[in-house]
Design goal:
The structure is a single chain. The protein is of the alpha/beta class. The protein is globular, with a radius of gyration of 19 Å. The chain has a single domain, classed as 2-Layer Sandwich (Nucleotidyltransferase, domain 5). It is 31% helix and 19% strand. The mean pLDDT is 79.
Length: 176
């Protein structure tokens, strides 16, 4: 069985300041060219492999949730000649997950996906909040993104995935 915890966040093309300082009495100024645009992100953390699966979109619609489900299909869906492993995604009851389109997409996958629900807003019950915070503070901070925010998000997620070890105790050796 594969346990996935899902959550969503957003990123801005405007500069995100994780930490900033200025001399006493001086104004802190950060250039922010262009208009601010948001990119919504749907993410799911695989607790076995520690892989963060993210779908970024300029919209916050049910169709984005369906695209995120299609990512699950490619990674965890039944494959010919192999037994189907159950996948348990845990997520909130947000409007993207409860719309007619989302319910229909989940019904198609009901034979291998077992859905568990969290309350509408439960940041303390999902580990994804720490990944969103880390992504914003270390990978996207102190930069402005004119049109390359999608690319920067995917690079940040790849960097986070490559930093984490798949098995926490893998590679440890006993000293004699």
């Amino acid at each position: 069985m594969t346990l996935l915890s899902g959550d969503e966040s957003e990123a801005l093309t405007q500069c995100y300041l994780a930490r900033a300082w200025a001399k006493r009495g001086a104004d802190l100024r950060v250039p922010a060219p262009g208009q601010v645009q948001k990119v919504a992100m749907l993410g799911s953390l695989d607790h076995t492999t520690r892989l963060l699966i993210v779908h970024a979109s300029k919209t916050r619609r049910s169709s984005d949730f369906v695209v995120h489900l299609e990512q699950f299909d490619r990674l965890y869906g039944p494959k010919p000649g192999q037994p189907a492993r159950p996948v348990v995604p845990v997520g909130d009851n947000g409007p993207r997950r409860t719309s007619k389109l989302s319910r229909a997409a989940r019904a198609v996958r009901a034979h291998w996906r077992i859905v568990e629900r969290l309350p509408g807003y439960a940041p303390d019950q999902t580990e994804n909040e720490t990944f969103w915070r880390d992504r914003k503070a270390h990978h996207l901070a102190h930069q402005s993104f004119a049109g390359a925010l999608d690319h920067a998000i995917h690079n940040a997620v790849q960097a986070l995935n490559s930093e984490r070890m798949p098995v926490p105790l893998d590679g440890l050796q006993i000293s004699a």
